[in-house]
Amino acid sequence: MSVGDTVRETDTAEIHALLERGAAAWNRGDGTAYGEQFTADATDVTYAGTLYRGGAEIGRAHQALFDGFLKGTTLTIEVVDLRFHGPDTAVVVTRGEVRKGRPKRLGKLATYTVTREADGRWRIAAVQKTQRKRLLEALSFRFQPATRPAAHTR
């Protein structure tokens, strides 16, 4: 194994840990800790289409959600794809769900752009969340088979 491979394995583990810290903060209802996983100038496009800017605002807004209708929910995520774009940037696609209790299926997708900051820590620079529309997807694949991705996800 080369030094480059070892560095990539370490970076991959650190990015997974970043996402796990974010989920753990969500599961505790800790908006401050959730916001700390983001860069100071991050963007967060929520499932509802709201745009938040900066880790502090993302944390503040999520705390209000955790204290309100997201109280007691858990965030479950699974990394589907992780690709590096240079030594300090990666794009991560996840499948996930927010529920009270264990989700039956992970029906939301999120695309994260993560960056290594000057302090050496990986943080989320941008995230965009989307609800997967299984019926529309199935219809598209049935009537337009060429729309099916080569690596079709569950």
Fraction of residues in helix = 25-40%
CATH architecture: Roll
Structural class: alpha+beta
Tally of discrete structural domains: 1
The CATH class: Alpha Beta
**SSE sequence, one letter per element:** HHEEHEEEEH
Count of helical stretches:
4
Low-pLDDT parts are none
Q: How much is the radius of gyration in Å?
A: 17 Å
Task: Please state how the strands of the largest beta sheet are arranged side by side.
Answer: 2-1-6-5-4-3
Mean pLDDT: 90
Using the coordinates shown, work out and report the CATH topology. Nuclear Transport Factor 2, Chain: A
Q: What is the overall shape?
A: globular
The proportion of residues in beta strands is: 25-35%
Number of strands: 6
Distance between the termini: 32 Å
- What does the largest sheet look like? 6 strands, mixed
Quick take:
This protein is an alpha+beta fold.
Architecture overview:
With 154 residues, the chain is α+β, with helices and mostly antiparallel strands. The chain has a single domain, classed as Nuclear Transport Factor 2, Chain: A, CATH 3.10.450. Helices cover 35% and strands 34% of the residues. The longest helix is centred in the first third of the chain and has 26 residues. The chain is globular. The relative contact order is 0.15.
Question: Which helices and strands occur, and which strands form pairs?
Answer:
Elements: H1 3-28, H2 31-35, E1 38-45, E2 51-53, H3 55-67, E3 74-84, E4 89-99, E5 108-116, E6 122-131, H4 134-143
Parallel strand pairs: 1-6
Antiparallel strand pairs: 1-2, 3-4, 4-5, 5-6
